[in-house]
Write a structure and sequence with these properties.
Helix content: 25-40%
CATH topology: Glutaredoxin
Number of domains: 1
Structural class: alpha/beta
CATH superfamily: Glutaredoxin
Distance between the termini: 27 Å
Strand order of the largest sheet: 5-4-3-7-8
Number of helices: 3
CATH class: Alpha Beta
Number of strands: 8
Oligomer: single chain
């Protein structure tokens, strides 16, 4: 069972240059639900859950879901990050070149943070299960997507 979601916190701010060279700004995504996934190429569970995360994103992006995967790998591993991220349709950036505010400490992986349509942090925790799946995501994200 997943822990209860925390009360909405302050708006987050994320800016980054994505692997494809485009600029990412969480400010531009207001009105959408944003899931930020912290991962690394050397993290087996991270790599295992990414296909499920991509499938979920593809299924719900038309309803207002955005996903940003921030790799905590060293900048020198960018080529490996690009290779791992190549099959996925969500945005990917290197965390070391991103600017973040409004997050708690990232001390486990994989970890996801979810922001509502107003940019407020509503959940940041480690999903305590061997793999992130649609059921776990539905419990947190569907209510936010249904809110207007």
């Amino acid at each position: 069972m997943l822990p209860m979601a925390r009360a909405a916190g302050p708006a987050a701010s994320i800016s980054a240059t994505l692997l494809d060279g485009t600029l990412f700004s969480s400010e531009a995504l207001r009105g959408q639900v944003l899931l930020v996934n912290f991962w690394a190429t050397w993290c087996g569970p991270c790599r295992t859950e990414m296909p499920a995360l991509d499938g979920y994103f593809r299924q719900h992006r038309e309803r207002g879901l955005s996903v940003l995967a921030l790799s905590v790998d060293e900048l020198s591993a960018e080529a490996q990050v690009r290779e791992v991220a190549k099959p996925f349709s969500f945005a990917v950036a290197m965390m070391k070149s991103a600017r973040l505010s409004g997050f708690g400490r990232i001390w486990r992986m994989p970890v996801c943070a979810v922001f509502d349509r107003n940019g407020r942090l509503v959940r940041q925790d480690w999903f305590i299960q061997p793999q992130l799946d649609a059921g776990a995501l539905d419990a947190v994200i569907l209510p936010l997507l249904q809110a207007s």
